[in-house]
Design goal:
There is one protein chain. The chain is 23% helix and 19% strand. It is α+β, with helices and mostly antiparallel strands. It has one domain (7-102). A hairpin with a 2-residue loop joins strand 3 (58-65) and strand 4.
């Protein structure tokens, strides 16, 4: 597989976590790379839902595999779009995304 690099240009770096953040990619004003993150997850066999958040960023709102939801919407006090996805995504997803999107 090709490795995606988290950069728009030499000056503009981004992180995969922004695809889960309501205010990511400069609140949606920079090139939104949420689709690249979703594609990487789908290539790894996950079903992904992406949702536009009004005038803000477009965010990943659901990741599932085998019919099992892997994003705990509202569970354990986590708030999708606001909290760092490293705190609520399963470790295998964090490792996958870290491996695919390195700067």
């Amino acid at each position: 597989m090709n490795n995606f690099y988290g950069r728009f240009s030499d000056e503009e770096l981004w992180e995969w976590e922004e695809a889960f953040d309501k205010f990511g990619f400069n609140d949606g004003d920079d090139p939104v790379q949420t689709g690249l993150v979703a594609d990487a997850l789908e290539l790894a066999g996950y079903a992904v839902e992406v949702t536009p958040w009004g005038i803000h960023n477009t965010v990943i709102t659901s990741i599932s595999k085998g019919g099992i939801e892997l994003m705990p919407v509202g569970a354990n006090g986590h708030r999708i779009g606001y909290d760092n996805p490293r705190t609520y995504l399963p470790e295998e997803l964090v490792k996958l995304l870290d491996g695919r999107f390195s700067n």
